[in-house]
Request: fold
Amino acid sequence: AWFSLHPSVVHVVLVAGDANVNGFAQLGHLQQVLQDASATLADTNSNTNATAEARETLGKYQHVWNSVLHNFTSPIASNVFVYHQRQRHAPWTMGPANVWDYGAQPGVTFGPEVELAHVLGEAFAPDPVVI
Reply:
């Protein structure tokens, strides 16, 4: 049971593709960018442009930053779930949308499902969404 209530509405979004939706963005790079932005804000000697850029970066990716702070395990949106088949003929899996589980290499890469989950989660809250 991936949600405890039986809502009358469940939004289902199909994402079709092959390598173009497989997810090759590097978690390590994302983590470094967000940590650098956080350090810039903490540095009282940072110039105004760097501070503004760091604020914009953290603001734009706050939902991902929250996941980074929890070792990438916290969900991107609490109402969004991913139903996913890693390879053809492999079993389908389902779980909360997060940065860790659904890239081409779980725990190393992530894909478009991260931002899609964030946007759909906000748009359809509190209804559940399945990608």
Q: What stands out?
A: The mean pLDDT is 83. Residues 30 and 39 are 14 Å apart (CA to CA). The longest helix spans residues 27-42.
